[in-house]
Amino acid sequence: MLDIAIDGPSGAGKSSAAKLAAAKLGFIYVDTGAMYRAIGVAALRRGIDTQDKDGVIAMLPELEISLAFIEGEQHVLLNGEDVSKEIRLPQASMAASHVSALPEVRAFLLDLQRRLAAENDCIMDGRDIGTVILPDAGLKIYLTASPEIRAKRRYDELIARGTPQDYDELLKEIIQRDYNDMHRETSPLKQAEDAVLLDSSDLTLEQVVDRICALAKEAMEATA
Ligand code: DC
Questions:
Q1: What tens digit of pLDDT does each residue of 80-99 get?
Q2: Which domains are delineated in the chain?
Q3: CA of 90 relative to ligand 1 center, distance in Å
Q4: Which of 10, 140, 151, 217 would you label with 170, given CA atoms 20 to 30 Å apart?
C-alpha cells in the first residue's frame, strides 16, 4: 500500500495533476478541499456567517460528509446529497477557507480522511496531508506555483467555462487565500520537512503528472 500526500496553495494544479496521476497509477484520488467546501456550502445554505465560529461549530453534528467514486470521479455528498457542483461556486471557496481555519472542523474530517487512506492506495491532496493527516505517507509532494501563474490559470479556466472574472480580482483572492491558509493557527499550510518540492510554474500538467508518477514508482520500489 502506498499513500501519496500532495499539499500546496490554491491553484497550484494539485487536483488536476493528482487526478490524472491516480488514474495512471490505479490509485484513488481524494480531494480533501472538497470536504471543507461541502461544510462551507452547508453553512451558506443555512445562512450561517462562515466566520461565526460558534455558528459553524454548532452546525457540525447535523452534517454527514462522505465520498462516492463514480467512474473514478470523486463526488462529495452532504447528508447524502451530491453537492459536487455547488462546492465549486466562488462563494464556496471563501466559505471553505473560513471554516477550514477552525480546529473543530478539521477534527470533524480527520477520521474520514485517515480511513480513506488506510483502506486504499491513494493520492490525497490538501494543505496538511503530509504534515498532520498522513505524517507517515510513503511519498509527500509540495506542489506550488507563483501567485501570478495561478491567477492566470484560474482566469483561463473561467473563460473556458464561460464565467470570466477580472484577473486582478483573482490574483487578490489567491493572495488572500494563501495568507489565510498559511497563517491560521491550526494546521497551517506548509511544506513537510520530508516533502519533495515541485514548482509547476514552468511545467505543463503532463510534466507534473509524469514527475508524480516517477516519484511514486521510486517510492514503491523502495518499499518493495
Ligand atoms: O483545495 P481547495 O481550494 O478546494 O480548498 C478549499 C479550502 O479548504 C482552502 O481555503 C484551504 C482549505 N483546505 C484545508 O484547509 N485543508 C485541506 N486539507 C484542504 C483544503
A1: 999 999 999 989 988 998 99
A2: 3-223 (3.40.50.300)
A3: 13
A4: 140
